[in-house]
């Protein structure tokens, strides 16, 4: 059968020319938009920007439980070391590793406190997108993004993809409310809603184990290795929860802590905090008062391990 | 392999290349191989059920045609099989649970077993298509399909297997028998639909989903105003999610030269009654229920009472088809109540031409539907009662959540509503196809830029996959 009887070359050619032309125009426009957005991003005080421009002795890493629970000023005062809270809402271990790699290019901390417990949550799968703007700047970040997404090279052919889902928050930080935290610490206001307390009374938290993201776990291990390599003391902490609990990845973390000789401090069963409504905003998050109380307690415990620093 | 993933589009490019390169007589094989590969990649083990369903319905269809004496028996076997597998996977746990509750109330020590099997993807859709085919053959409307490959493609066609549109055998068999040359017009129409579908899903449905989930997961923590806003928003989430999927499915089929059924005609911006809404929303299911349930039920009867019973029957089935839960049944009952009321009051027979009257009816229709869709979204009556209790008892601040998400879906909704006001009975690809090239390309570029900048590229799966 003749190929041309069912494929008209002129139709194919017409389609291909128009399609490629469209892609070229789209690429050009997206590139022209990428340039100013990129410029705005790297001149805006975002969470990452603030961390990379800080010079602390102690850094707190982790997700929201890190950023809202560790009052950097209290830790600094009690430990006699400058402290910066690099925690950020909803970010998993992949993001933390990327952030550490970038930080180490300018500054080497003495101590890192890693708030563990939710670093491989499935809801954090998108936290790597916050590293996207560094795809074209940092080869290590580029490698990490490619490891996370096998189609990254294709997607980043359109540079604007680096800002997918982030433009509005960048503009907000640039023009409305710049990142303004006390050495990275972002206290929460308010107390736990009575409805949540009732809900928690009837929830079996042991059944809520989510599937562990292997890539995030591997990146967590890589984070620990990197600290060892740079001779940074790392301590795992699990801060208080409203309902007594253990970190979801408790066995994995405990084993890693044991293998690597890392202190692992757990505060989630502390009676000062458990079921104490005045210290919590929700089950997983302390409010400002709770964070200050916890920072006092944890800093006095840390002082024991950091007396040589 | 999600319709919104790059992986799917790479798969599609390979399928298109193979499809147009191989000789016409082998193209149905390419589609079948691609469809089975696609289904296999979603959930490998359930392909056995799809193949078994295909084989059995193919044989029974042919037997119904050949052996007229026993055709009723073959029809019964087919219906028992099709409804049986759907019952087993979708409804068995529900019925067992309800009966166990009943037994425990009468202190009977009986505990019916339940299973933990996941519902096979697309089973609710391809089962209806199989039943539709068998009934068509039984009624003599179409001859039984002799070509096994075409019949397999009819049930497994990858653009529509996950969530429809629920196609008709007559139209699809004809298309699988036709030659599909590579046509520029098909490619451009297909890509337009895909682009529009991606926009609906990524820029509107997924961001609305984030907001709605945040509110409905903790109802008592939100104010009345937030709850009202969320209740009004949810129908748009469901619509843009499902119609976004359908646009992509129709677009993909169009690239292969196929025309799948139109499933939506801008239902929320044009419907002046709930009856009209159901002529514009999930058309393939509504028309399936009308053709295969309502008309046979009506027979030669024309009396009002019978019509009302028929409406009640099809919406009870529609509700139950969506899921084994009392909430879906209540949702179906609400639709039936609305339609019967409109029929009794002859609201649908009136044509609202004047501007204020027409807009008022659109708003009333939307409010009625939004209320009924609470039963579609909320998991149980306790949640519904909590919603109502909070709605009437709690002033407070309006929940904004993530400002970026809020702004994204508001922008998306404004674009959607503006375009749908212009569409009326046309589809997006037809409407844009009539415009001048400059305007057309400006729209394509704008939509593409909005998707890349604001769209949820790694968003959630489509809502209707669960049905």
Report the uncertain regions of chain A.
none
Low-confidence sequence ranges of chain B? none
Following the backbone from N to C, one meets helices and strands of chain A in this order, namely HHEHHEHEHHHHHEHEEEH
The structural domain count of chain A equals: 1
Please describe what this structure looks like.
The complex is a heterodimer of chains A (309) and B (467). Chain A has helices spanning 9-41, 47-52, 64-67, 72-79, 93-104, 139-148, 152-155, 167-176, 194-201, 214-229, 250-259, 288-305, and strands at residues 58-61, 83-85, 111-115, 233-238, 264-266, 280-282, 285-286. Chain A is an alpha/beta fold. In chain A, the strands form 2 sheets. Chain A has a 5-stranded parallel beta sheet with strand order 2-1-3-4-5. Chain A has a two-stranded antiparallel ribbon with strand order 6-7. The model of chain A has no long low-confidence stretch (mean pLDDT 88). Helices cover 71% and strands 0% of the residues of chain B. Chain B has 19 helices and no strands. The model of chain B has no long low-confidence stretch (mean pLDDT 92). At the A-B interface, helix 1 and helix 8 of A face helix 1, helix 8, helix 17 and helix 19 of B.
Condensed summary:
The complex is a heterodimer of chains A (309) and B (467). Chain A has 309 residues and is α/β, with parallel strands linked by helices.
Helix-strand blueprint:
The complex is a heterodimer of chains A (309) and B (467).
Chain A: H1 9-41, H2 47-52, E1 58-61, H3 64-67, H4 72-79, E2 83-85, H5 93-104, E3 111-115, H6 139-148, H7 152-155, H8 167-176, H9 194-201, H10 214-229, E4 233-238, H11 250-259, E5 264-266, E6 280-282, E7 285-286, H12 288-305
Helix pairs in contact in A: 4-12, 5-10
Chain B: H1 6-21, H2 27-42, H3 47-66, H4 71-105, H5 123-138, H6 148-156, H7 169-177, H8 184-216, H9 224-255, H10 267-270, H11 274-280, H12 283-298, H13 304-322, H14 326-345, H15 355-377, H16 381-391, H17 403-423, H18 428-433, H19 437-454
Helix pairs in contact in B: 1-2, 2-6, 3-4, 3-5, 3-6, 4-5, 6-7, 8-9, 8-17, 8-19, 9-15, 12-13, 13-14, 14-15
